[in-house]
Amino acid sequence: MRKLLLAVFLTAFAILGASAAEKKAIRFGLTAVVVRENLRFFDDMTEYLSHHVGQEVVFVRRKSYQEIMELLASGDLDFAWICGYPLVQKREPEFLSLVTVPVYKNQPYYRSYVIVHRDSTVKSIGELKNKVFAYSDPNSNSGYLYPRYHLSTEGHRPDSFFRQTFFTYNHAETVEAVATRFADGGAVESYIWEFLQITNPDLVKKTRVIHESPKFGFPPIVSRNSVAPGIVRRMSETFAQMKDDPDGRKLLGALHLDGFRAYHIDLYEDIRFMSENVAQWTDVSSISGSRISGKQ
After folding, report:
1. How far is it, in rounded angstroms, from Cα 166 to Cα 137?
2. Which tens digits make up the pLDDT trace of 270-284?
3. Residue ranges per domain, the chain?
4. Which residues are within 8 A (CB) of 226 and not within 5 positions of it... i.e. 6 or more apart?
5. Whole-model pTM above 0.70?
């Protein structure tokens, strides 16, 4: 009898624990790289996700990808919109899963742009040697990893190529730094630069693109592996169905996205390759030309 009562008690406790987890607010991480130009839309996004997921969603904003990754690692975040670079970095044990990927211009891709002032005489990355260069975030593919990889494949040492470098932690501020000539050049995400062409054309027209990377998997939405499968499924379904819902389409339009779709992690294989070759960059002779696929 005691064993039966104990079993009933443990079952009830487990059910109550699961129920409490289901009612707890879902914490969703965002960085300044994503937030600044879209901030006015995220209150509406919070309301939309909370309604369709069936559970309160709270956005947690931090300056850098590193801060977001630390919160994911500690369990203080359930979901986050991050970059492909932190997604593919090795972790033991792995605690992240790919949930969904934005679709931009009918594809799950974006590029890294290297930009200069519109009146600059610089026409290639090589001509930026000994100049001041703005990176976005040390865990950004488009704003850090790719331009350094490209320099390596051209036979340059990324750490000593520029006279000075700094991080803006925001693609829009990278554009501003170049537009105001605070930096001679900068690396930005194509999506943000093109978003600003629409929302802040006076700023963007002061810059021009001198280099475009191959296409890379668009910055994804991820979840912690400890999040209940039911919550992950509802979140994934909510993003996937946005394009079919009037309110969802309005939010997508504000973000200039076509929708969200599930993709395999292999979408980020080119970024993984570059990430795994970081250690080689102190010896440029060990890299002989680009080996990323160059999707067009």
Report:
1. 9
2. 999 999 886 565 443
3. 2-104+218-263, 109-217+272-286
4. 75, 95
5. yes
Which tokens is 198 given?
A: 């629409």
Closest CA to 87 of 14, 29, 18: 29
Pseudo-torsion of CA 188, 189, 190, 195, nearest 10°? -100
- DSSP secondary structure of 163-221: SEEEE-SSHHHHHHHHHTTSSSEEEEEHHHHHHHHHH-HHHHTTEEEEEEPPBEEPPPE
Query: Are 2-104+218-263 and 109-217+272-286 equal in CATH topology?
Result: yes
CB atoms within 10 A of CB 232: 18
Query: Which pair of tokens denotes residue 214?
Result: 């191959």
CA distances from 260 to 48, 160, 237 (A): 15, 39, 9
**114, 162 Cβ separation under 8 angstroms:** no
Q: How far is CA 23 from the centre of its chain?
A: 28
CA distance 50 to 53: 5
The CATH class for the domain spanning 109-217+272-286 reads alpha beta
Q: Give per-residue pLDDT as tens, 6-21.
A: 444 444 444 434 444 4
Question: In DSSP terms, which residues pair with 212 in a beta bridge?
Answer: 113
Distances (CA, A) of 156 to 162, 221, 266, 273, 287: 10, 33, 29, 19, 10
User: What is the architecture, at CATH level 2, of domain 2-104+218-263?
Assistant: 3-Layer(aba) Sandwich (3.40)
